Automatic annotation (TrEMBL):
<comment type="similarity">
    <text>Belongs to the cytochrome P450 family.</text>
</comment>
<dbReference type="GO" id="GO:0016705">
    <property type="term" value="F:oxidoreductase activity, acting on paired donors, with incorporation or reduction of molecular oxygen"/>
</dbReference>
<keyword id="KW-0349">Heme</keyword>
<dbReference type="GO" id="GO:0004497">
    <property type="term" value="F:monooxygenase activity"/>
</dbReference>
<keyword id="KW-0503">Monooxygenase</keyword>
<dbReference type="GO" id="GO:0005506">
    <property type="term" value="F:iron ion binding"/>
</dbReference>
<dbReference type="Pfam" id="PF00067">
    <property type="entry name" value="p450"/>
</dbReference>
<keyword id="KW-0408">Iron</keyword>
<dbReference type="InterPro" id="IPR050121">
    <property type="entry name" value="Cytochrome_P450_monoxygenase"/>
</dbReference>
<keyword id="KW-0479">Metal-binding</keyword>
<dbReference type="InterPro" id="IPR001128">
    <property type="entry name" value="Cyt_P450"/>
</dbReference>
<feature type="binding site" description="axial binding residue">
    <location>
        <position position="490"/>
    </location>
    <ligand>
        <name>heme</name>
    </ligand>
</feature>
<dbReference type="InterPro" id="IPR036396">
    <property type="entry name" value="Cyt_P450_sf"/>
</dbReference>
<keyword id="KW-0560">Oxidoreductase</keyword>
<dbReference type="GO" id="GO:0020037">
    <property type="term" value="F:heme binding"/>
</dbReference>
<dbReference type="InterPro" id="IPR002401">
    <property type="entry name" value="Cyt_P450_E_grp-I"/>
</dbReference>
<protein>
    <submittedName>
        <fullName>Cytochrome P450</fullName>
    </submittedName>
</protein>
Amino acid sequence: MAFFWILLVPAILTAILVINSSISLARNYMIARKIGVPIRVIPIDHTNPLWMTVDRKVLYYVRKLPGFLGDNSFTRYNFRCWEMYDRLRQHQEMGDAFVIVTPARIWFYLSNPEALMDCFRRRTDFPRCVEMTEILNVFGKNLSTVEGQQWKTQRKIISTCFNEQNHKVVWKESLLLSRDMLSYWSRQPSVMTSAQDLRTLSLHVLSAAGFGRHYQFEGHTERSNASAAASYNSSLQTILDNCVLIMVLGPSFLAKARPWLPGTWKLAKLADKCAAFQRYMTEQYEEEKRKMLTQKGTGAAKTLISSLVSASQAEARTGGGIGLSESEVYGNMFMMNFAGHDTTAHTFTFAIYFLAANPQVQDWLSEELHAVLGDNQADWKYASSFPRLKRCLAVMLETLRLYTIVAISKWVGDEHVSLQVGRRTIVLPPKTMWIPSYAAVQTDPKYWGPDALTWRPSRWIQAGAKPGEEELIVIERGTFLGWSEGARDCPGKKFSQVEFVATMATLFRDWRVHPVPVHDGESQEEAQKRVLDLIEHDSAPLLLLQMLHPERAPLVWRRR
């Protein structure tokens, strides 16, 4: 009898779940029909946290089924970042706007640039969906997870540290660290740790410019696990790689469960990393508070952490909601570590591998770098160099055009909203998710030419000028969304650009990167094609879009 109930109870719960999901799906479908655009239906919301932990594995096997069973809306749309694989195809089939219906919500996808910019400007009509960003509430609420007055307060505080003084620090630190990284890479017969090393570089730039802590670069194979930088890096990376699991369980659950978990279990290691990173942030927070007391009135340089702590102290003094709570300080410290280092690091990795597969672009970069920097080996000034290195910046822009690291999502508020899309007026119901189809509009031949799917940085440069005197093209607003648009664009946009350009300058003025042949007789052309295939077929989102296994294409660095 007991065995019967053991089988019956899960069966009943499953049946209830299926019935409830079916009713919700039918209700959402009926609402979506009134929008008047093409509709696709999928049985599971692709942002369901539990589904996100297994989506790619499940669909891998489902796609092996014959005919329609393996090729349908479920296999095409029911996973994270499906847009990156579909590119323009869905809008070619369904027009500028279409809807995907799930049991949880209605998803409205849009690729019309004018309508996109209209949505970005209407911040109150299309606010950020905080439900979608809760995954970043690992250590507290932050700029990515709050709305209304809280968002305005946090945005103002965080924006204060992104200034030209700070960008000079980013430039200097990026040059120092990238020179050390290049020295390490040039000593290796082949480099299989490009992604890890670029993460280290980006993390250390952020540590210096954002948090006032300077670390020496350590190559992945030379790193000492006992060093403070390694501990910090390891803890942060483990947390970022397991954000979905942490969101499902919660840091507090991990902390409480840790005494009962064997040390070899993944959850135990994850709990330890969360605790270690929390200690690291607490130490920084307390250290900055001490600095504020001892340096009061001395005009100490502003960093991100000093801005956050100053705001938290204002909150403590007034209690009037004008600053940040301590947990919000920790939340924003984590958010900046996530948004300010992992996004740039993944962009670096894509760019390095694209360059390895395109030696002619490396020559194009070197031409500009010699024109701007000359034979000077050391003193590259931010003010005179960065604004002129347009080709280096074009590499970043072109990489983000094809592989946008962070997907953008917003939603409709509590009221119906009308939107002009071309000659049509579309009315969106409350709580509809709005998704800018960045992967479609950024590869649309109407705006980017017949080779829109080809990685070609020179498309961003106006023709006619000499290297070092060139300008970027003026693109139509809404056709490139690499840092979002409108009031909610990325506050660290120039921070990331300065870091990227300084690193490209170091790596490619006097050096080349080549893919290492992986089997006897493989030519350089074949190796370059293999790298491009790896980028296209082995890139996917974990938390952010990234190359999953760049180590499968080792690289070698050689002086020109």
